[in-house]
Amino acid sequence: MRKAELSRKTRETDIAVSLDLDGKGKGVIETGIGFFDHMLTALCTHAGIDLAVKAAGDLEVDCHHTIEDVGIVLGQALCKALGDKGGIARYGSFYVPMDEALGFCALDVSGRPFLRFECAFQHAMMGGMETAMVEEFFRALAMNAGITLHLSVPYGANDHHKAEALFKAFAHALKVAAARTDGGVLSTKGVL
């Protein structure tokens, strides 16, 4: 049973996440940030996971706290759903072309959080979402999921396409890494 339900409430945000790694790719996403909702919907659709996210945040300030805190809770939910990380492929990588942009993700469900992010955005905003928050979301997710995460867009012109290519590449790489295997923990140490 690779499911998790978690919530986090602070003076800035109130986040609830429900995750099923063996779902059908269905999402119920409500963050108050239209572009971010679009990205999270793409993530669950392409990863084949069921994901519910309900977030209320101080959007009158900006989108930062809401997006970062969703990343924190989603990362924690992923960590919980993956358990001891036994019986999964562990590694995943994927390229996604999105029109003129190319997104790449390589990840290791290692228990060692790390983010390498290479993507140059042209503008400050995509709808109601700051482009800088793409990196912040993935940093919060990687640190709280305990995954080593490398994301890059080697080329592209449209910021929407760049961001969407990254979310979809992450989704497909996660799907590969979380795939069930017949073995135990994939490590010479025997544990992660």
UniProtKB/TrEMBL annotation:
Q: What class of enzyme is it?
A: lyase
Q: Which reaction does it catalyse?
A: D-erythro-1-(imidazol-4-yl)glycerol 3-phosphate = 3-(imidazol-4-yl)-2-oxopropyl phosphate + H2O
Gene Ontology molecular-function annotations: imidazoleglycerol-phosphate dehydratase activity
Which Gene Ontology BP annotations are present? L-histidine biosynthetic process
Q: What is its EC number?
A: 4.2.1.19
> Which terms in the GO cellular component ontology are assigned?
cytoplasm
Which UniProt keywords are present, listed alphabetically?
Answer: Amino-acid biosynthesis, Cytoplasm, Histidine biosynthesis, Lyase
State if Cytoplasm is listed as a keyword. Answer: yes
Q: What is its main location?
A: cytoplasm
**Matching SUPFAM superfamilies, A to Z?**
Ribosomal protein S5 domain 2-like
Q: Which domain of life is it from?
A: Bacteria
Q: Where in the cell is it found?
A: Cytoplasm
Q: Does the keyword Cytoplasm apply?
A: yes
Q: Which Gene3D superfamilies match?
A: Imidazole glycerol phosphate dehydratase, domain 1
* Pathway, per record: Amino-acid biosynthesis; L-histidine biosynthesis; L-histidine from 5-phospho-alpha-D-ribose 1-diphosphate: step 6/9
Q: Which InterPro entries match?
A: IGPD_sf (IPR038494), ImidazoleglycerolP_deHydtase (IPR000807), ImidazoleglycerP_deHydtase_CS (IPR020565), Ribosomal_Su5_D2-typ_SF (IPR020568)
Q: Which family does it belong to?
A: Belongs to the imidazoleglycerol-phosphate dehydratase family.
Name-wise, this protein is: Imidazoleglycerol-phosphate dehydratase
> What is the originating organism of this protein?
Harryflintia acetispora
Q: Which gene encodes it?
A: hisB
